[in-house]
Request: fold
Amino acid sequence: MSLTKKNNYSVVIVGGGLVGASLAIALKKIGLDLLVLEAVEAESQLQPSFDDRSVALSLSSMKILNKFGIYEKLKYKGQALENIHVSDQGQYGFARLESNKLNIEQLGAVIENRILGELLLDKVEQLKIEYRSPIKVTKATKDDRGYSLLLTNGEHEETVNCSLLILADGARSPLKNDLGFTTKETDFEKSAIVCNVKPQLPHNNWAYERFTSNGPLALLPLNQNRLSIVWSNTVEKTKELINSTEEEFAEELLKSFGARLGWFEKIGKRLSFPLKQIVSINTVKENCLLIGNSAQTLHPIAGQGLNLALRDILALQAHLGSSNLDKLGDYNDLLMFEKTRVKDRQETIANTEGLARLFANEWSPMTYSRNFIMKFMDIIPPLKEKFAIQAMGFKNE
Reply:
């Protein structure tokens, strides 16, 4: 029994989640011969990329997905993000971004990971991209052509070869470690809860970022008047909230967020995860490239993980589309690509970490300063527009 259609490919992508599937679509559109390998069955509830979380897509990311041919379905199944309200619990400062005052239709969209994953996999199938799951790569060996990969599905083993190996299999990628990529890990010593809730009052396509003494609380608009929440807390508080009843959880949420949307009538399944930033020092080696969470896993405070990955994917598509494919996987060529992305990557990592630390600092002068900045930004149009441009993902265009 053959695990794949053949043994030699130009590109093999390890990881078929949101990033891996998006990358496969992008590279297929420039005619590359590729294979996607995913360790978990696509329909399985264990697929970490397609779990109950949601993602806030910037307007820039929506434009990228439009180029991949899934924009219309995304617009139909996602929820428009028209306004953003940022505030600090117990303080006077706040900032608002409203699409109608910026003369645009929306700032972005919010969609559940599971639904976005289904849209991407439908496109993968439509483009006849070879996508294999469940298959694990147990060994990657460098050779003259690129990489030789030993694959298994638990019953059979097989070897495939490629000129360019791309790892999109997450922050804890075992292959990344085996191939000698080094990482820097920052433990924020907190954890976050994700779940969907239904408020008493309509959300009217507003997203909220509320900074509390324990960490940020984000509420993102979903269809059917639901909200996707990402709630950062101390590890102890997160455990308490996970084990609380729905009514107790709703009461705690109301205390942290306030009564702007009334009572929270329904609380969905709650999941938790530790808050860590894991950044690979380098993202390329000879014949190998990291992308998405394999390259950097960010604090969810600004929701920039997938948005950054999509910008990387679009840039990689353009770079490989204009390169001599006889040199596919060449280290100097990959290094050239890495250098084109370093500014955006470093700025996004620094800004995300900076926000996480700024709003976790309860020192009084810092609290007053950040609230003054938010209030000042809310009443000065040029500052608000600059913030909006960054929020929509256009800062580097």
About this structure: The two ends are 47 Å apart (CA to CA). The first helix runs from residue 18 to 28.
